[in-house]
Amino acid sequence: MPAKNSIKQYAPDSYYHLYNRGVEKRQIFMDTQDYTVFLSYLKSYLLPKDSLNLQKMLADPLTPWRQKDRIIKLLRLNNFSETLELLAYCLMSNHFHFLFKQTEADTIDKFMNSLCTRYTMYFNKKYKRVGKLFQGVYKAVLVTSDEQLLHLSRYIHRNPTSLALQGDALQGYKYSSYQEYLGLRDTKWVKPDQILSFFSKSGYNSYKIFTEDVSLEEVSIDKVANITLDYNEN
Question: Which of the four CATH numbers 3.30.70.1290, 3.30.70.80, 3.40.50.10420, 3.30.1330.30 does domain 14-223 have?
Fold first, then answer.
């Protein structure tokens, strides 16, 4: 029987919660470099590619050959800046969560296959291992309401609470988009505005209160109950 949320039917102009973890619950991020590389891959896929400038650099006889080799790889790399928007994310040591909007039906599948293959190649080379890194096919859940969208973003940003981070301490977790939501960091390839439009900038109705208020925990779990909620550090 297929794993829950492993069979996916994608629709254009739709929102999806995507997640996966390491095979046998193993760590997929071993150190700061691993997190940084994974985030750099997201950036390269989600920011517009400056193809014109890259072509000029490639044609320039003064460009070193090693740089030209990197430019060729960048030009060949898939880019999803016109068809994907990343609303929220969180990277934990053995799993990740994304909240995406896609405009074309097949974009997410192409993106996830490219990202996971690319990162697995990096990880296996660095740690001198072979084989799969992730636990089967990534999981995907279609978001069907604004309420579900909001509570999914809360659930994603509260993932670090498993590391005993509570309240303001969540702001210090570098590997999620929560800092973008609080205005502490500006990342061009993270798009928090749609979710933030449901909240005031400060006070009781702010996104910060919504995310950090523990009294909403039971409500949020109910709103995202159709996903697997056992992606913890164990």
Answer: 3.30.70.1290
